[in-house]
Amino acid sequence: MAFDLENAGFMTRAIHAGQGPDPAFGALATPIYQTSTFCFDSVEDGMAKFDGATPGYVYSRGGNPTVRTLELKMAAIEGGEDCVAAGSGMGAVSSVLLGLLQAGDHVIVGDCVYGCTNVVIRDVMPKFGIEVTPVDTSDLGAVAAAVKPNTKMVYFETPMNPLMKVTDIAGVKRAVGEGIRVVVDNTFAPAPVQRPLACGADIVLHSVTKYLNGHGDVIAGVIIGSAEDIAVIKNIGVTKTSGSICSPFDAFLIIRGLQTLGMRVERHCANALAVARYLEGVPCVKRVLYPGLESSPYHELVITQMNGLGTGILSFELADDVNGMSSFEAGKKLLNALQLSHIAVSLGDPASLIQHPASMTHHNVSPEVRAEMGITDGLIRFSAGLEDAEDLIADFKQAIAQL
Protein backbone atom coordinates (compact mmCIF):
# COMPACT_ATOMS: atom_id res chain seq x y z
CA MET A 1 0.00 0.00 0.00
CA ALA A 2 1.36 3.45 -0.97
CA PHE A 3 2.31 5.88 1.79
CA ASP A 4 -0.37 8.51 2.46
CA LEU A 5 1.53 11.61 1.30
CA GLU A 6 -1.60 13.76 1.40
CA ASN A 7 -1.56 13.63 5.19
CA ALA A 8 2.23 13.52 5.58
CA GLY A 9 4.37 16.30 7.03
CA PHE A 10 5.61 19.18 4.91
CA MET A 11 9.18 18.00 4.33
CA THR A 12 7.99 14.48 3.49
CA ARG A 13 5.66 15.87 0.82
CA ALA A 14 8.32 18.26 -0.51
CA ILE A 15 10.74 15.37 -0.98
CA HIS A 16 8.48 12.55 -2.17
CA ALA A 17 5.34 14.03 -3.75
CA GLY A 18 5.12 13.70 -7.51
CA GLN A 19 8.27 11.67 -7.93
CA GLY A 20 9.81 8.28 -7.36
CA PRO A 21 12.45 6.12 -9.02
CA ASP A 22 12.31 6.51 -12.80
CA PRO A 23 10.34 3.55 -14.23
CA ALA A 24 12.65 3.18 -17.23
CA PHE A 25 15.98 2.66 -15.44
CA GLY A 26 15.32 3.25 -11.74
CA ALA A 27 17.09 6.62 -11.56
CA LEU A 28 16.53 8.25 -8.15
CA ALA A 29 16.69 11.81 -9.50
CA THR A 30 13.95 12.72 -11.96
CA PRO A 31 15.47 12.54 -15.46
CA ILE A 32 15.62 15.60 -17.71
CA TYR A 33 13.44 14.87 -20.73
CA GLN A 34 15.14 17.46 -22.92
CA THR A 35 13.04 16.98 -26.02
CA SER A 36 10.74 19.18 -28.05
CA THR A 37 8.48 16.39 -29.33
CA PHE A 38 7.48 12.79 -28.59
CA CYS A 39 7.07 9.82 -30.94
CA PHE A 40 3.93 7.67 -31.23
CA ASP A 41 3.66 3.93 -31.69
CA SER A 42 1.16 4.46 -34.49
CA VAL A 43 -1.13 7.03 -36.06
CA GLU A 44 -3.91 5.70 -33.84
CA ASP A 45 -1.71 6.16 -30.75
CA GLY A 46 -0.99 9.75 -31.77
CA MET A 47 -4.68 10.48 -32.34
CA ALA A 48 -5.59 9.06 -28.93
CA LYS A 49 -2.96 11.15 -27.14
CA PHE A 50 -3.93 14.33 -28.97
CA ASP A 51 -7.56 13.70 -28.03
CA GLY A 52 -6.64 12.94 -24.43
CA ALA A 53 -8.18 9.49 -24.67
CA THR A 54 -4.91 7.91 -23.53
CA PRO A 55 -2.28 9.47 -21.26
CA GLY A 56 1.04 10.58 -22.70
CA TYR A 57 2.97 13.47 -24.15
CA VAL A 58 2.93 14.90 -27.66
CA TYR A 59 4.92 18.17 -27.59
CA SER A 60 6.82 19.78 -24.70
CA ARG A 61 5.01 23.11 -24.99
CA GLY A 62 1.89 21.28 -23.89
CA GLY A 63 3.46 18.87 -21.41
CA ASN A 64 6.74 17.21 -20.47
CA PRO A 65 7.48 14.42 -17.94
CA THR A 66 10.13 16.41 -16.02
CA VAL A 67 7.91 19.48 -15.85
CA ARG A 68 4.95 17.34 -14.83
CA THR A 69 6.89 16.00 -11.85
CA LEU A 70 7.41 19.59 -10.71
CA GLU A 71 3.72 20.39 -11.19
CA LEU A 72 2.55 17.39 -9.18
CA LYS A 73 4.99 18.22 -6.39
CA MET A 74 3.82 21.84 -6.21
CA ALA A 75 0.15 20.81 -6.20
CA ALA A 76 0.90 18.58 -3.19
CA ILE A 77 2.91 21.28 -1.40
CA GLU A 78 0.18 23.92 -1.82
CA GLY A 79 -2.77 21.54 -1.38
CA GLY A 80 -4.28 22.18 -4.83
CA GLU A 81 -5.87 19.82 -7.33
CA ASP A 82 -3.43 20.68 -10.11
CA CYS A 83 -0.57 22.95 -11.12
CA VAL A 84 0.91 24.37 -14.30
CA ALA A 85 4.52 25.55 -14.48
CA ALA A 86 5.43 28.66 -16.48
CA GLY A 87 8.68 30.03 -17.84
CA SER A 88 8.79 32.93 -15.36
CA GLY A 89 6.91 34.49 -12.49
CA MET A 90 5.49 37.08 -14.88
CA GLY A 91 4.51 34.25 -17.23
CA ALA A 92 2.46 32.86 -14.34
CA VAL A 93 0.90 36.24 -13.50
CA SER A 94 -0.01 37.07 -17.11
CA SER A 95 -1.33 33.56 -17.82
CA VAL A 96 -3.74 33.74 -14.87
CA LEU A 97 -5.08 37.09 -16.01
CA LEU A 98 -5.25 36.23 -19.72
CA GLY A 99 -6.70 32.80 -19.06
CA LEU A 100 -9.49 33.76 -16.68
CA LEU A 101 -10.52 37.33 -17.58
CA GLN A 102 -12.28 38.86 -20.56
CA ALA A 103 -13.48 42.25 -21.77
CA GLY A 104 -16.04 43.74 -19.41
CA ASP A 105 -14.67 42.04 -16.31
CA HIS A 106 -13.58 43.95 -13.21
CA VAL A 107 -10.52 43.13 -11.08
CA ILE A 108 -9.71 44.33 -7.58
CA VAL A 109 -5.92 44.45 -7.29
CA GLY A 110 -3.67 45.11 -4.33
CA ASP A 111 -2.54 48.72 -4.44
CA CYS A 112 1.08 47.72 -3.88
CA VAL A 113 2.39 44.89 -6.07
CA TYR A 114 5.59 44.01 -7.90
CA GLY A 115 6.45 46.67 -10.51
CA CYS A 116 6.04 44.45 -13.59
CA THR A 117 2.76 43.04 -12.24
CA ASN A 118 1.60 46.61 -11.73
CA VAL A 119 2.33 47.41 -15.39
CA VAL A 120 0.36 44.40 -16.66
CA ILE A 121 -2.65 44.99 -14.42
CA ARG A 122 -2.88 48.78 -14.51
CA ASP A 123 -1.62 49.50 -18.04
CA VAL A 124 -2.12 46.39 -20.18
CA MET A 125 -5.39 44.89 -18.89
CA PRO A 126 -7.45 48.08 -19.48
CA LYS A 127 -6.40 47.92 -23.18
CA PHE A 128 -8.42 44.71 -23.38
CA GLY A 129 -11.48 46.25 -21.75
CA ILE A 130 -10.78 44.90 -18.26
CA GLU A 131 -11.58 47.35 -15.45
CA VAL A 132 -9.09 47.60 -12.57
CA THR A 133 -9.55 49.02 -9.06
CA PRO A 134 -6.43 49.28 -6.83
CA VAL A 135 -7.23 48.67 -3.17
CA ASP A 136 -5.27 48.21 0.04
CA THR A 137 -6.27 44.57 0.50
CA SER A 138 -5.14 44.60 4.13
CA ASP A 139 -8.26 46.79 4.65
CA LEU A 140 -11.12 44.29 4.35
CA GLY A 141 -13.73 47.05 4.41
CA ALA A 142 -12.09 48.67 1.37
CA VAL A 143 -12.07 45.31 -0.43
CA ALA A 144 -15.78 44.76 0.20
CA ALA A 145 -16.60 48.32 -0.89
CA ALA A 146 -14.73 47.83 -4.19
CA VAL A 147 -16.85 44.85 -5.32
CA LYS A 148 -19.02 45.52 -8.40
CA PRO A 149 -21.55 43.36 -10.26
CA ASN A 150 -18.88 42.57 -12.88
CA THR A 151 -16.08 41.82 -10.38
CA LYS A 152 -14.50 38.50 -11.31
CA MET A 153 -11.20 38.47 -9.41
CA VAL A 154 -9.26 39.85 -6.46
CA TYR A 155 -5.50 39.73 -7.01
CA PHE A 156 -2.93 40.55 -4.34
CA GLU A 157 0.45 39.72 -2.82
CA THR A 158 0.84 38.93 0.85
CA PRO A 159 3.15 40.09 2.22
CA MET A 160 3.06 42.98 -0.26
CA ASN A 161 6.18 43.90 -2.20
CA PRO A 162 7.97 45.94 -0.83
CA LEU A 163 5.87 47.45 1.99
CA MET A 164 5.38 44.10 3.77
CA LYS A 165 1.71 44.58 4.60
CA VAL A 166 -0.07 41.29 5.28
CA THR A 167 -3.56 40.57 3.94
CA ASP A 168 -6.04 38.31 5.73
CA ILE A 169 -6.70 35.79 2.93
CA ALA A 170 -9.73 34.19 4.59
CA GLY A 171 -11.06 37.66 5.37
CA VAL A 172 -10.82 38.71 1.71
CA LYS A 173 -12.71 35.60 0.63
CA ARG A 174 -15.47 36.38 3.12
CA ALA A 175 -15.52 40.03 2.00
CA VAL A 176 -16.06 39.27 -1.69
CA GLY A 177 -18.17 36.12 -1.37
CA GLU A 178 -18.53 33.22 -3.76
CA GLY A 179 -18.21 33.62 -7.51
CA ILE A 180 -15.20 35.96 -7.32
CA ARG A 181 -11.82 34.25 -7.61
CA VAL A 182 -9.25 35.16 -4.97
CA VAL A 183 -5.75 34.96 -6.48
CA VAL A 184 -2.72 35.21 -4.19
CA ASP A 185 0.89 35.75 -5.20
CA ASN A 186 2.62 33.73 -2.47
CA THR A 187 6.21 34.36 -3.60
CA PHE A 188 7.24 36.10 -0.36
CA ALA A 189 5.84 33.46 2.00
CA PRO A 190 5.92 29.98 0.46
CA ALA A 191 4.89 26.88 2.38
CA PRO A 192 5.64 25.94 5.09
CA VAL A 193 5.02 29.61 5.94
CA GLN A 194 1.69 30.21 4.24
CA ARG A 195 -0.77 28.08 2.23
CA PRO A 196 -3.34 30.42 0.64
CA LEU A 197 -5.59 27.67 -0.70
CA ALA A 198 -6.11 26.37 2.83
CA CYS A 199 -7.09 29.93 3.82
CA GLY A 200 -9.80 30.14 1.17
CA ALA A 201 -7.95 31.42 -1.91
CA ASP A 202 -8.91 29.92 -5.27
CA ILE A 203 -5.55 30.24 -7.00
CA VAL A 204 -2.01 30.64 -5.70
CA LEU A 205 1.00 31.53 -7.82
CA HIS A 206 4.72 31.95 -7.28
CA SER A 207 7.77 33.33 -8.93
CA VAL A 208 9.69 30.05 -8.57
CA THR A 209 12.83 32.08 -9.29
CA LYS A 210 12.82 33.03 -5.63
CA TYR A 211 12.38 30.71 -2.60
CA LEU A 212 11.00 27.62 -4.32
CA ASN A 213 14.12 27.07 -6.40
CA GLY A 214 16.26 28.85 -3.84
CA HIS A 215 19.61 28.87 -5.61
CA GLY A 216 19.49 31.91 -7.89
CA ASP A 217 19.92 29.93 -11.12
CA VAL A 218 16.40 29.56 -12.54
CA ILE A 219 13.63 31.77 -13.94
CA ALA A 220 10.21 30.11 -13.62
CA GLY A 221 6.70 30.38 -12.20
CA VAL A 222 3.91 28.09 -11.00
CA ILE A 223 0.13 28.37 -10.68
CA ILE A 224 -1.90 26.06 -8.42
CA GLY A 225 -5.65 25.72 -8.02
CA SER A 226 -8.63 23.60 -9.01
CA ALA A 227 -8.20 21.19 -11.90
CA GLU A 228 -10.83 23.15 -13.86
CA ASP A 229 -9.11 26.53 -13.44
CA ILE A 230 -5.63 25.16 -14.11
CA ALA A 231 -6.80 23.49 -17.33
CA VAL A 232 -8.07 26.83 -18.62
CA ILE A 233 -4.98 28.76 -17.51
CA LYS A 234 -2.69 26.14 -19.04
CA ASN A 235 -4.47 25.78 -22.38
CA ILE A 236 -5.21 29.47 -22.95
CA GLY A 237 -2.62 31.39 -20.93
CA VAL A 238 0.57 29.35 -20.61
CA THR A 239 0.77 27.17 -23.72
CA LYS A 240 -0.97 29.35 -26.32
CA THR A 241 -1.40 33.06 -25.58
CA SER A 242 1.91 33.65 -23.79
CA GLY A 243 3.75 30.45 -24.72
CA SER A 244 5.48 30.85 -21.37
CA ILE A 245 6.39 27.25 -20.59
CA CYS A 246 8.92 25.97 -18.08
CA SER A 247 11.91 24.16 -19.60
CA PRO A 248 12.71 20.56 -18.54
CA PHE A 249 16.17 21.54 -17.31
CA ASP A 250 14.78 24.36 -15.16
CA ALA A 251 12.12 21.99 -13.79
CA PHE A 252 14.88 19.54 -12.84
CA LEU A 253 16.71 22.25 -10.89
CA ILE A 254 13.52 23.37 -9.13
CA ILE A 255 12.63 19.80 -8.11
CA ARG A 256 16.08 19.59 -6.53
CA GLY A 257 15.59 22.91 -4.73
CA LEU A 258 12.16 22.01 -3.37
CA GLN A 259 13.57 19.09 -1.43
CA THR A 260 15.25 21.50 1.01
CA LEU A 261 12.55 24.20 0.95
CA GLY A 262 11.32 23.76 4.52
CA MET A 263 14.76 24.01 6.13
CA ARG A 264 15.81 26.92 3.94
CA VAL A 265 12.70 28.99 4.53
CA GLU A 266 12.90 28.62 8.30
CA ARG A 267 16.52 29.90 8.24
CA HIS A 268 15.60 32.82 5.92
CA CYS A 269 12.78 33.85 8.28
CA ALA A 270 14.92 33.58 11.43
CA ASN A 271 17.67 35.69 9.88
CA ALA A 272 15.22 38.35 8.69
CA LEU A 273 13.71 38.62 12.17
CA ALA A 274 17.16 39.01 13.75
CA VAL A 275 18.15 41.79 11.33
CA ALA A 276 14.77 43.52 11.72
CA ARG A 277 15.14 43.55 15.50
CA TYR A 278 18.62 45.04 15.16
CA LEU A 279 17.49 47.76 12.72
CA GLU A 280 14.62 48.76 15.04
CA GLY A 281 17.24 50.01 17.49
CA VAL A 282 19.35 51.99 14.99
CA PRO A 283 18.85 55.78 15.44
CA CYS A 284 19.13 56.66 11.73
CA VAL A 285 16.44 54.14 10.74
CA LYS A 286 13.03 55.80 10.61
CA ARG A 287 10.95 52.62 10.37
CA VAL A 288 11.31 48.88 9.87
CA LEU A 289 8.63 47.04 7.90
CA TYR A 290 8.64 43.40 8.95
CA PRO A 291 5.44 41.55 9.92
CA GLY A 292 7.26 39.17 12.26
CA LEU A 293 8.18 41.98 14.67
CA GLU A 294 6.09 42.17 17.80
CA SER A 295 5.59 45.88 17.03
CA SER A 296 4.07 45.15 13.60
CA PRO A 297 0.31 45.60 13.15
CA TYR A 298 0.38 42.32 11.19
CA HIS A 299 2.06 40.24 13.89
CA GLU A 300 -1.16 38.44 14.82
CA LEU A 301 -1.68 37.38 11.19
CA VAL A 302 1.87 36.03 11.18
CA ILE A 303 0.84 33.76 14.05
CA THR A 304 -2.50 32.66 12.61
CA GLN A 305 -1.91 32.69 8.84
CA MET A 306 1.87 32.41 8.42
CA ASN A 307 2.62 29.57 10.81
CA GLY A 308 4.45 31.96 13.13
CA LEU A 309 7.38 32.16 10.71
CA GLY A 310 6.98 35.53 9.02
CA THR A 311 9.08 35.90 5.88
CA GLY A 312 12.69 36.26 4.81
CA ILE A 313 12.13 39.78 3.45
CA LEU A 314 12.09 43.09 5.27
CA SER A 315 12.06 46.71 4.22
CA PHE A 316 13.33 49.72 6.12
CA GLU A 317 13.51 53.46 5.63
CA LEU A 318 16.33 55.72 6.70
CA ALA A 319 15.71 59.07 8.38
CA ASP A 320 15.12 62.12 6.19
CA ASP A 321 18.43 63.61 7.33
CA VAL A 322 21.38 61.32 8.06
CA ASN A 323 24.40 63.44 8.94
CA GLY A 324 23.44 66.00 6.31
CA MET A 325 22.51 63.40 3.68
CA SER A 326 19.02 62.79 2.32
CA SER A 327 17.55 59.34 2.90
CA PHE A 328 18.19 58.56 -0.76
CA GLU A 329 21.88 59.52 -0.62
CA ALA A 330 22.36 57.76 2.72
CA GLY A 331 20.66 54.65 1.32
CA LYS A 332 23.03 54.54 -1.65
CA LYS A 333 26.02 54.90 0.64
CA LEU A 334 24.72 52.15 2.94
CA LEU A 335 24.13 49.69 0.11
CA ASN A 336 27.57 50.35 -1.36
CA ALA A 337 29.22 49.83 2.05
CA LEU A 338 27.70 46.40 2.75
CA GLN A 339 30.10 43.53 2.17
CA LEU A 340 27.99 40.37 2.60
CA SER A 341 24.75 41.52 0.97
CA HIS A 342 24.83 41.77 -2.81
CA ILE A 343 22.99 44.61 -4.55
CA ALA A 344 20.47 42.65 -6.63
CA VAL A 345 16.72 42.71 -7.21
CA SER A 346 15.80 39.09 -6.53
CA LEU A 347 15.20 37.30 -3.24
CA GLY A 348 15.25 33.85 -1.67
CA ASP A 349 18.86 33.11 -2.65
CA PRO A 350 21.42 31.54 -0.25
CA ALA A 351 23.23 34.91 -0.26
CA SER A 352 21.56 37.99 1.21
CA LEU A 353 20.40 40.53 -1.38
CA ILE A 354 19.54 44.20 -0.96
CA GLN A 355 17.97 46.69 -3.34
CA HIS A 356 16.39 50.13 -3.69
CA PRO A 357 12.78 49.74 -4.94
CA ALA A 358 12.29 53.29 -6.27
CA SER A 359 15.26 52.97 -8.65
CA MET A 360 15.12 49.22 -9.28
CA THR A 361 12.08 46.89 -8.93
CA HIS A 362 9.56 49.76 -9.06
CA HIS A 363 11.51 52.09 -11.36
CA ASN A 364 8.96 51.51 -14.16
CA VAL A 365 6.15 52.66 -11.85
CA SER A 366 5.46 56.39 -12.09
CA PRO A 367 6.52 58.56 -9.14
CA GLU A 368 2.87 59.41 -8.56
CA VAL A 369 1.82 55.76 -8.30
CA ARG A 370 4.87 54.98 -6.13
CA ALA A 371 3.74 57.75 -3.79
CA GLU A 372 0.23 56.26 -3.71
CA MET A 373 1.75 52.88 -2.85
CA GLY A 374 3.89 54.38 -0.08
CA ILE A 375 7.22 53.59 -1.76
CA THR A 376 9.49 56.48 -0.84
CA ASP A 377 12.92 57.25 -2.30
CA GLY A 378 14.47 56.23 1.02
CA LEU A 379 12.90 52.75 1.18
CA ILE A 380 15.30 49.78 1.08
CA ARG A 381 14.36 46.10 0.69
CA PHE A 382 16.52 43.35 2.20
CA SER A 383 16.31 39.62 1.45
CA ALA A 384 17.93 37.68 4.29
CA GLY A 385 20.07 34.82 3.03
CA LEU A 386 21.29 31.70 4.78
CA GLU A 387 24.40 33.23 6.34
CA ASP A 388 24.89 33.37 10.11
CA ALA A 389 22.65 36.08 11.54
CA GLU A 390 25.49 37.47 13.68
CA ASP A 391 27.56 38.08 10.55
CA LEU A 392 24.71 39.83 8.76
CA ILE A 393 24.19 42.16 11.71
CA ALA A 394 27.92 42.85 11.98
CA ASP A 395 27.95 43.80 8.30
CA PHE A 396 25.07 46.23 8.80
CA LYS A 397 26.83 47.74 11.81
CA GLN A 398 30.03 48.48 9.88
CA ALA A 399 28.08 49.92 6.94
CA ILE A 400 25.88 52.14 9.13
CA ALA A 401 28.99 53.38 10.95
CA GLN A 402 30.15 54.85 7.64
CA LEU A 403 27.06 57.07 7.24
How much beta, percentage-wise? Answer: 15-25%
Could you name the CATH topology of the largest domain? Answer: Aspartate Aminotransferase, domain 2
Number of distinct beta strands: 14
Give me the number of helical elements: 14
Number of domains: 2
Give me the strand/helix succession. HHHEHEHEHEHEEEHHHEHEEEHEEHEH
- For the terminal residues, how far apart are their CA atoms? 64 Å
Assigned CATH architecture of the largest domain: 3-Layer(aba) Sandwich
The gross shape turns out to be: globular
Oligomer category: single chain
List the main descriptive attributes of the protein structure presented here.
2 domains, Aspartate Aminotransferase, domain 1, five-stranded mixed sheet, 14 strands, 14 helices, 37% helix, alpha/beta, Aspartate Aminotransferase, domain 2, 403 residues, seven-stranded mixed sheet
Give an overview in words:
Helices cover 37% and strands 15% of the residues. It is an alpha/beta fold. The protein has 2 domains: 8-258, Type I PLP-dependent aspartate aminotransferase-like (Major domain) (Aspartate Aminotransferase, domain 2, 3-Layer(aba) Sandwich); 261-400, Alpha-Beta Complex (Aspartate Aminotransferase, domain 1), CATH 3.90.1150. A hairpin with a 2-residue loop joins β10 (321-322) and β11 (325-326). The radius of gyration is 22 Å and the shape is globular. The termini are far apart. The model has no long low-confidence stretch (mean pLDDT 94).
